[in-house]
Amino acid sequence: MCHTEKIASYFDEHFFSHGHTYEAHPLTLAPAVASINEMKRLKLNDRANELGAYLGKKLHALEASHPSIGEVRGIGLFWRWSW
Q: Most buried residue, 5, 15, 59, 70, by most Cβ within 10 Å?
């Protein structure tokens, strides 16, 4: 918890309206939409899954043969292992 009950209870009766300056603003969303479309055009998700399968296979082989690796898990190119 990052605050006390006293502070939290204050906002029960005092509405706190907050938003980020660029939250859901068309000017900031346009690059995100363009990036997503480019990722789709280049089929980067498919490529990440293809490379991730290879990477996962190699990391699981290390997991089996290296005593300091506890667990390997991941998807696509996002992988992690624990000690």
A: 59
